[in-house]
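thought: user wants a sequence for this fold. calling inverse folding tool.
action: design(structure=
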């Protein structure tokens, strides 16, 4: 009886294993499906997935404190969790649109960084997306550092923030903006908007007050940044209300 399996072994890159070559007929397809659902292939796929997650977690540079934050570990904030889960479930669509998220609250300890790192963790673990997570200030530091010590070219570092699949910028507007920072940030956001690459932010400013603070710092045309953020985070610009959780933990 024709089994559809040829007397030859070949390498399958999808699982990194050598397996039987199957002919392109019904029996061959069935034999290939059977081999794919076997323990050896399933174990290899699981191992490959875990390796990819570990690589992306390392690449993200997500600090250790934030690596284990999840939406489940966020107390209360039910409406926020619903919206963030809607984003996560629909990520494939939002990714194509280049849609990210802007979380803000005037006060500290409301859980902005907690939620953003939970989103980053989920995108890495569920969707295997390479992400970079850092504060706005750290981003400028990296670019400046590259410029000063020539270890990595400044352009390369700059392009890394422009081109990464998902960029998470924590604490937007936390330190004084300068004309140079403004130029860098506008360039990065402009590129990401044009290439539909999702960008995520936390800030202690609403977008209106952020624009005002840029204006007060004498930044020319401050709306260039905020206008782009409105478009990039359309539907997911959210204020986080509540108390300072850090104080709550203290008592
Ligand atoms: N609703 C919550 N449930 C559980 N833990 C929370 C909640 N809100 C905040 N936390 C915890 O409190 C700490 C402070 O939260 P977080 O750093 O996310 O606040 P933030 O809004 O980013 O503050 P800041 O404006 O100072 O950056 C974190 O350890 C976080 O995990
Ligand atoms: Mg924070």
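)
observation: tool returned 251 residues.
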């Amino acid at each position: 009886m024709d089994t559809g399996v040829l007397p030859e072994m070949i390498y399958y890159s999808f699982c990194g294993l050598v397996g039987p070559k199957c002919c392109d007929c019904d029996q061959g397809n069935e034999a290939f499906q059977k081999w794919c659902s076997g323990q050896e292939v399933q174990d290899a796929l699981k191992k490959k997935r875990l390796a990819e997650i570990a690589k992306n977690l390392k690449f993200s540079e997500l600090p250790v404190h934030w690596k284990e934050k999840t939406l489940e570990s966020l107390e209360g904030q039910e409406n926020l969790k619903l919206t963030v889960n809607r984003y996560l479930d629909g990520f494939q669509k939002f990714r194509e649109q280049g849609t990210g998220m802007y979380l803000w609250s005037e006060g500290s300890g409301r859980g902005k960084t907690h939620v953003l790192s939970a989103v980053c963790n989920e995108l890495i673990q569920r969707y295997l997306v390479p992400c970079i997570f850092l504060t706005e200030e750290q981003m400028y530091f990296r670019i400046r550092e590259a410029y000063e010590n020539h270890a990595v070219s400044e352009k390369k570092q700059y392009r890394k923030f422009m081109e990464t699949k998902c960029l998470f910028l924590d604490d937007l507007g936390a330190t004084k903006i300068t004309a140079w920072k403004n130029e860098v940030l506008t360039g990065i956001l402009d590129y990401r908007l044009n290439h539909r690459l999702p960008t995520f932010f936390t800030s202690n400013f609403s977008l209106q007050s952020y624009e005002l603070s840029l204006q007060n710092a004498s930044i020319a045309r401050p709306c260039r940044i905020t206008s782009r953020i409105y478009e990039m985070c359309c539907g997911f610009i959210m204020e986080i209300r509540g108390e300072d959780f850090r104080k709550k933990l203290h008592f």
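thought: summarizing for user.
answer: Here is the designed sequence. The first strand starts at residue 5 and ends at 12.
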